[in-house]
Amino acid sequence: MNQPALPRSMNLRRSVLSVPAINPRALEKTHQLDCDAVIFDLEDSVAPEKKAETRENLAAFFRSKPLDGKERIIRINGLGTSWGRADMELVSALEPDAVLLPKVNEPQDIMAIGDLLADADAPDEVRIWAMIETPRGILNAAAIAEAGRTAGSRLDCFVVGLNDLRKETGVLPQPGRQYLVPWLMQVILAVRAYGLCAIDSVFNDFKNIDAFDAECAEARAMGFDGKMLIHPAQIEPANRYFGPDASAIAEAEAIIKAFADPATDGLNVINADGRMIERLHLVQAETLVHKARLIAERLKAKGPTAN
Ligand SMILES: CC(C)(COP(=O)(O)OP(=O)(O)OC[C@H]1O[C@@H](n2cnc3c(N)ncnc32)[C@H](O)[C@@H]1OP(=O)(O)O)[C@@H](O)C(=O)NCCC(=O)NCCSC(=O)C[C@H](O)C(=O)O
Ligand SMILES: [Mg+2]
Fold it and tell me: What local confidence, expressed as pLDDT, does residue 298 receive?
């Protein structure tokens, strides 16, 4: 079977904001924020005694007003916890764009969620996202991603969780994430091999925007599609770093134009002002222009203050 060349989803996922679903004020704020996706968290940001109240909050929020133009993801508690099953019942009732499973260790974890969604007759549009944040999750990243190729799999995206991974491994937080980069790249390889998306971990020090910028630049260079965020102040820089800039758009448009010339029919490789361009660059250029178009449409819909 051919490997998919592009992520299965072409959605914008530059900025993926986590919102503790226990907090109605923060939930309400998501309507006015310019993030691409929102993770409604039922897991680590919610105290054990508040889990039931949180599910009620989230149900009321989903039923109050649609969250226009943003992907909606619900992060559940693990199925091995006493809250996981009730969280999945809520997912089946609310039908978000995706359910995010924490602490995924092996392919069976994904299959179990897939089975629950199928048993609940959840539409195919309800996808599965996986937190890769345990030593076993990193070691099994490729096998977990491969589970996304099985018939009917809904697996769509990996989100790295470095808080848990640091806790489990003892790696210290350091600028540049020197000792974590090999594991992060393992995640990138796994998602690219199986056509999934990759979202980089949260950055805890949300007042330190310079350091956040540096981490976004690094994550973009590594190949991540976007970043999981914890605070609204992180949205604008994430959108900037993970969105194509004007020169990248111009270059992509030039590649598309070059291959649209009938003179390139039957050619896989052309000379563009002294630089070799292959048809594989055309696929990348088309993806980039597609994303740029989505961003432009968003800006147009929102007016001059959106990023
Ligand atoms: C970290 C916070 C607790 C800080 O909150 P707060 O003290 O309220 O910050 P501010 O006063 O600066 O907030 C300014 C306004 O912005 C709103 N706000 C803040 N955060 C959010 C948010 N995430 N979504 C929506 N709105 C937000 C405040 O309500 C203020 O609004 P207003 O009152 O109108 O001025 C807080 O930011 C927070 O709770 N963040 C998210 C925490 C979270 O989701 N944690 C789970 C994800 S982390 C993770 O997954 C780790 C991973 O698993 C791993 O292992 O690595
Ligand atoms: Mg975690």
Answer: 87
Residue located nearest, by CA, to atom 27 of ligand 1: 26
pLDDT at 300: 86
What is the mean predicted confidence (pLDDT) over 245-251? 93
What domain range includes position 276?
246-302
Instruction: Say which ligand is closest to the CA of 162.
Output: 1
Kind plus residue range of the DSSP H or E element containing 111: helix 107-119
Residues 160 and 229 grouped into a single domain:
yes
Assembly ipTM:
0.99
Q: What's 160's domain CATH number?
A: 3.20.20.60
Q: What's the pTM?
A: 0.94
Separation of CA 220 and ligand 1 centre (Å) = 23
Q: Tell me: is residue 253 an annotated ligand-binding position.
A: no
Residues 196 and 267 in one domain: no
Question: Is 192 flagged in the annotation as binding?
Answer: no
Residues forming a β-bridge with 15:
227
- Domain for residue 204, yes or no? yes
Cβ atoms within 10 Å, residue 256: 15
Give the Cα separation of 207 and 127 in Å (integer). 32
| C-alpha 277 to ligand 2 mean position (Å) | 41
Does the pLDDT of residue 133 top 70, yes or no?
A: yes
Total tally of structural domains belonging to the chain: 2
Gap from CA of 46 to ligand 1 centroid (Å)? 12
